[in-house]
Amino acid sequence: MSKKSFLKHSKIKKLSEWLKDKRTDVLGGKYCHLLLIEQLDKKNDVIGELAEYFNQAYEPFRQHIRELLGYSLNPLENNADDDPARGYPENLHPLTLQGYFGEVFAGIVAEHYELLGSDEWEVPVFLFHSHDVAFQQLELARQTGKEVKRVPGRTGDDCLAFVRDSDGKIIRIMVCEAKCLTDHNATPIKDAHEKISSPNIISVDTIKVIEALQLNSDKENTVKWINALRRVYFKKDEIKERCDMVLYICGRAPKKDETWISTTTPHKSYKGGRKLMATEIQLIDVSDIVKDVHDRVKEL
Fold first, then answer.
1. 251 in Cβ contact with 289 (< 8 Å)
2. Strands 19-26 and 31-38
3. How far is CA 117 from the centre of its chain?
4. CA atoms within 13 A on the CB side of 204
5. What is the pLDDT of residue 281?
6. How far is 98 from 104, CA to CA, in rounded Å?
7. CA angle, 140 then 141 then 143, to 5°
8. What's residue 64's pLDDT?
9. Secondary structure (DSSP) of the chain
């Protein structure tokens, strides 16, 4: 079996039917709030497309582990039961998967909506391959039969999106911080805005993105992305703009107001001074959708 390409994610065609959107742009486009509200009767129609997108997001981690251990997907060479990536990600602790859900959804929003003046945002790869503690817990469970414990979240940025020009050069960066909760809590919203305020223009995870991209089988496209990212790293002055996005997924809608995050004013904890995107997703049952998606991923 050949490696899957994960540079181009599957478009989720029924996303807009499942999540009804309402957006507010203020301050001359410098602040935007996007509210996405779940239409429960449309969930079954979109779940398969979501699972395919998530499956592609997780693929670099699987390839990373298999290559390190010299495991081939060829059934004539290896037994599928020995696959070191078996059980990833579905066997991880539900709260770990919930965190991953938020990270991937930041990428979904970036690639499916017009954000901060552009509808050309691309997420070349997610960074699960660098979450070493998650694999350590999976490996422990594989050897001992014990349940996988909840693990600390991955450090660094949750998701990175880019806009490239006609020559393939990266001209805009969007750093995304995601929070995914079953119930409302104002503290994570505050924490996300504080973290996203970091003054660096180039993500601290740029090298990790390059590392993950090297696992891709689409070599021609991979080389283009890696060269563009290397250029960003060494020639920071070519970047026209860094933007920020905070994504907040919550399983409880507010009663008094329509949103948990202000639609007209950036959060008081945000000190970045850049264009800011606040995306708020109100789901009926966060745990249920997280489980449904990962159950489907297991089947792919």
1. no
2. antiparallel
3. 20
4. 11
5. 98
6. 10
7. 65
8. 86
9. -PPPP-SSPPP-TTHHHHEEEEEEEEGGGTEEEEEEEE-GGGHHHHHHHHHHHHHHHHHHHHHHHHHHTT----TTTS-GGG-TTTTTTTTS-HHHHHHHHHHHHHHHHHHHS-BTTBS--B-----GGG-HHHHHHHHHHHHH-PPPPP-PPPPS-SEEEEEE-TTS-EEEEEEEEEEEESS--HHHHHHHHHHHT---SS-TTHHHHHHHHTT-S-HHHHHHHHHHHHHHHH-GGG--EEEEEEEEEESS--SSSS-SS-SSS--TT----S-EEEEEEE-S-HHHHHHHHHHHHHH-
What tokens were used for 130?
């660098």
- Measured CA to CA, the distance from residue 255 to residue 251 in angstroms comes to 13
CB 201 within 8 A of CB 173: yes
C-alpha count within 13 angstroms, C-beta hemisphere, residue 184: 12
Tokens describing residue 181: 């909760």
pLDDT at 235: 84
pLDDT mean for each 10 residues of the chain (300 residues)? 64 96 95 98 96 94 88 76 88 95 98 96 93 90 89 92 94 97 98 97 94 87 95 86 97 95 97 98 98 95
Residue 48's DSSP bridge partners are none
CA nearest 130: which of 102, 97, 157? 157
Distance of CA 68 to the CA centre of its chain: 24
Instruction: Give the pLDDT of residue 4.
Output: 56
Quote the Cα angle for 222-112-10, to 5°.
50
pTM score > 0.90 for this model?
Answer: yes
- Residue entry with tokens 């959708």: 289
